[in-house]
Write a structure and sequence with these properties.
alpha+beta; 2,3-Dihydroxybiphenyl 1,2-Dioxygenase, domain 1; 120 residues; 8 strands
């Protein structure tokens, strides 16, 4: 079974400026989802929703994509066996899904989301 990309996230130093940029550049609908975060909806069928907001680490930020998997722990184990490394989790996002993060062998950070744990 294939594991789809189900979410993308853009975070950085200025949540309001980033949200305005992506709203204006791509006509995405921004729905507030916290003090410094908004869910971005493309408004077309087949588009992937995303999040745009402040970096929780207070750094310059990053872009992450989320892959849906059936078992977070098993997937992290497989990734570690292939030369990747666990970065965070699994953990529950307050009011949201169960996620984990890993780095591939070159250090690129990717997120996992547990199947069935996404909320609209």
């Amino acid at each position: 079974m294939s594991n789809p990309i189900v979410h993308v996230e853009v975070v950085g130093e200025d949540a309001e400026a980033l949200q305005g940029f992506y709203r204006d550049a791509f006509e995405w609908q921004m729905r507030p989802s916290g003090p410094d975060y908004a869910m971005a909806h493309p408004g077309v069928e087949g588009g992937i929703d995303g999040g745009v907001g402040a970096s929780p680490q207070g750094d310059r930020g990053h872009v992450t994509f989320y892959v849906e998997v059936g078992d977070l722990e098993a997937t992290l184990g497989k990734i570690e066996g292939l030369g990747g490394s666990r970065v965070a989790g699994p953990m529950d996002v307050p009011g949201g899904p169960r996620i984990a993060m890993f780095a591939d062998p070159e250090g690129h950070v990717v997120a996992l989301i547990g199947a069935g744990s996404r909320r609209s």
